[in-house]
Design brief:
Two copies of one chain form a homodimer.
Chain A (H helix, E strand, L loop, with lengths): L1 E5 L3 H9 L6 E6 L4 E3 L12 H11 L7 H5 L5 E4 L11 H10 L3 E4 L2 H6 L1 H9 L5 E2 L10 H8 L4 E7 L2 H13 L3 H11 L7 H4 L2 H18 L15 E2 L7 H9 L2 E9 L4 E9 L10 E8 L4 E7 L3 H15 L1
Parallel strand pairs in A: 1-2, 1-4, 4-5, 5-6, 8-10
Antiparallel strand pairs in A: 2-3, 7-9, 7-11, 9-10, 11-12
Helix pairs in contact in A: 1-13, 7-11, 8-9
Enzyme class (chains A, B): oxidoreductase
Pathway (chains A, B): Amino-acid biosynthesis; L-threonine biosynthesis; L-threonine from L-aspartate: step 3/5; Amino-acid biosynthesis; L-methionine biosynthesis via de novo pathway; L-homoserine from L-aspartate: step 3/3
Pfam family, one (chains A, B): NAD_binding_3
Chain lengths: ~325, ~325
C-alpha cells in the first residue's frame, strides 16, 4: 500500500523506516512545518527514500522542502496519523483523518485524540466514505488490544482492564522495589527519559484514561445493533485518579500483605475508570517497569491476558503497519 | 454466514449452540454416523434448530436422521471441521476440508491433524479454490496465537513458545504444589476428568508438539516469498519429550531455587521442540493449572505474552467463530 505518514516523532519516523519491510511504500511524509512527496527526483522509481527522510529530520529538523499540505494531497492509499495526541477538538489530527476519508482513502491512527474525543464524528465520516479507519496503535503500543476485541466481537466482551501507562507503572514498580517516595522516583524517571519534564499526562492517569475511552467506544459501538444507539465516550466521561498521591508507605503496607499497587484502567460499554489499585504482588496485573498488560473478559472464552511493550517507536509502528495489513 | 458443522464433540456442539450469537446460521451438522440438514421441516425459515441438535445428541447419541455425507453436500458458506485430531493422512478431516475447498467454500478447522500433518497439501488445495481456510482453534483454544502472528506478519516473528497443553500443566502444577509424584497426580487428574484414561497424547507432548508444528508451518509459509521455498513441518519433524519421567524430586529441587518445571513448546521457521524446562516460579511462563500461554518473539515489537484458557468447548468454539468472522 502507498502510505502518507503525517507526524515525524518517534512513531512516524519508525513507520517510515519499517514500511518497506512490510511490503508498503511511503509516498509522502510530513512534520508540523515541512513535507516530502515522492516525485522520482531522489532517483527512486516511486516512493520517498526512507533513510533520507529520517536523516533530514535528524540533521536539519525537517523531513523535506515541501508544504505539509502537499503530503495530505499526495496520492496515497492509507494516511498514517502520527501527530501528537490533542484533546477537545483533537485537531489537527481529526482533520487529517477526515481529509483522507473524504478522498475515499483509509486512515490508520497512532494519535489517540480523534478516537478518544470525537469517535462519533469519526464513525460518521467513515460511513460517508469508501475508506475505513484503524487505530490499534492508540492502545497499548505493541499489544493487539483493539484487534483482539474485534475478533472476539465486542458484544462478547464484558470488560477490558489493565496497566496502560508505562511511565506510571515504572514509577510504582520502583517505589515498591526501592521503598522510595513518588517525588524521588519521578526525578529518577525523568533523568532516565522514562518520564517527561511535565509528567502530568502520564502520572495523572490521562493517557491511560484516553486508552480506556477508546476501548469503551469500541465496545459500545461494536456491540450496538444500531450505531445510533451506541453510547459515545470521551475523556469527560472517565472517572480518573492518578498516582501522585500514592505514598511510599502504602506500597510498603501492600508488600507486607503480598500485594502491590498498579494504576489500573477499566472499560466496559457503560463505564471508564482509572485509579491506583491493590493487586497481588506476583499476579498477572503486576507487570514490571514500562510493560503494559490488557485483560479481556469474555462471555464464552474466560479471561485473556496480553502483555508486552506498551510504547516505543518501532513497537507502536509495528501496530500501525499491522493495521495497514488488515486494510489490504 | 451459513455453517456446516462436522463433528459433534464438545467443540462442535458449542459451535452449534453459539453460532447464532455471532450472527451466523448452522445449516447442517454431522457426527460420525448421522447428520441433520436444514430443510424447514422443524418449523424454522432456515437453519437447523441448535437446541434440538444438541438435545438429540445428548438423549439419543445422534444429531439427526440424515447421512453425514448429506451435511458435506449441504449449501453452506463455511465448513467447520471439528472431528477428532488424527495423525498421518489426517483423515477423515482432511477430505472434509478439501471437499469444501473444491466447492469454493471456506473451511475453519478445530481439528489439528490436517494443518499439522498435511499443511502443504492443504495450501495447494487453497490455491486451487475460491475458498480459504482458518485454524485459530487448533492452537491454544481461546488464545489468538495464529491471528496475532498473522497480524504481526510471520516474517517479523522470530519464535513462538509457550505452555500449550493444559493437562500436562495441571499435573506439573499439582506435583509442585503438593510435592506428589507423577503417577499419583495423574490418577487425580483422571478422576477430575482433566486427563484422559489414556493420557499419552497430552503427557507425552504430542498435543503440544502438533500445536507447535502448526505454528512452525505458519511461520515458514508466511515468511517465504515463494511458498515453494517454504519448509513444511509435520509431527515427524518435532523433537518431543513429555513429562512422564519428571520426578517429584526435580520439582522440589527447582522450588528451592525459586523455579518450577513446565512443558514448553517452541516453534521457529526452522525447528519444533517440546520438552520439560525449568522456568522462574513467578515468571510469565509459569501459568497454573489448565491455563495456556503463548510468547511471541518479534523483530520490532519485543515479546508479546498471551495467556488464557487453552481448551474447552465454548472457549474453542469462540476461536472457531472468530475465524468465521474473519472470513466475512
Amino acid at each position: 500500500m502507498k502510505l502518507a505518514v503525517i507526524g515525524a516523532g518517534a512513531v512516524g519516523r519508525s513507520v517510515v523506516e519499517l514500511a518497506g519491510e512490510y511490503g508498503h511504500e511511503v509516498v509522502a511524509a510530513a512534520d508540523s512545518s515541512t513535507a516530502v512527496v515522492a516525485d522520482g527526483t531522489d532517483g527512486r522509481a516511486s516512493g520517498v527514500d526512507p533513510d533520507a527522510v529520517v536523516a533530514r529530520k535528524a540533521e536539519r529538523g525537517i523531513v523535506g522542502d515541501a508544504e505539509p499540505a502537499d503530503a495530505l494531497a499526495a496520492d496515497y492509499d492509507v494516511l498514517v496519523e502520527a501527530t501528537p495526541t490533542t484533546l477537545g477538538d483533537a485537531e489537527p489530527g481529526f482533520s487529517h483523518v477526515t481529509t483522507a476519508l473524504e478522498r475515499d482513502r483509509h486512515a490508520v491512527l497512532a494519535n489517540k485524540g480523534p478516537v478518544a474525543e470525537r469517535f462519533g464524528d469519526l464513525r460518521a465520516a467513515v460511513d460517508d466514505s469508501e475508506g475505513d479507519i484503524r487505530f490499534e496503535a492508540t492502545v497499548g503500543g505493541a499489544i493487539p488490544a483493539v484487534s483482539t476485541v474485534e475478533d472476539i466481537e465486542p458484544g462478547h466482551v464484558t470488560a477490558v482492564r489493565g496497566v496502560l501507562n508505562g511511565t506510571a507503572n515504572f514509577i510504582l514498580t520502583r517505589m515498591a522495589a526501592e521503598g522510595l517516595d513518588y517525588d524521588h522516583v519521578l526525578a529518577e524517571a525523568q533523568d532516565l527519559g522514562v518520564a517527561e519534564a511535565d509528567p502530568s499526562f502520564d502520572v495523572d492517569g490521562t493517557d491511560a484514561a484516553l486508552k480506556c475511552v477508546i476501548l469503551a467506544n469500541v465496545l459500545s459501538f461494536g456491540a450496538a445493533d444500531d450505531p445510533a444507539d451506541a453510547r459515545e465516550f470521551s475523556l469527560a466521561d472517565a472517572d480518573v485518579e492518578g498516582i501522585r498521591d500514592v505514598p511510599g508507605s502504602a506500597l510498603r503496607l501492600a508488600a507486607e500483605d503480598g500485594r502491590t499497587v498498579r494504576l489500573i484502567g477499566e472499560a466496559t460499554g457503560e463505564t471508564v475508570r482509572v485509579a491506583p489499585r491493590l493487586v497481588p504482588e506476583n499476579g498477572t496485573l503486576a507487570v514490571s517497569g514500562t510493560q503494559n498488560i490488557v485483560q479481556i473478559e469474555t462471555s464464552h472464552a474466560g479471561r485473556l491476558n496480553i502483555s508486552g511493550r506498551g510504547a516505543g517507536g518501532p513497537e507502536t509502528a509495528s501496530a500501525v503497519l499491522g493495521d495497514v495489513g488488515r486494510l489490504e
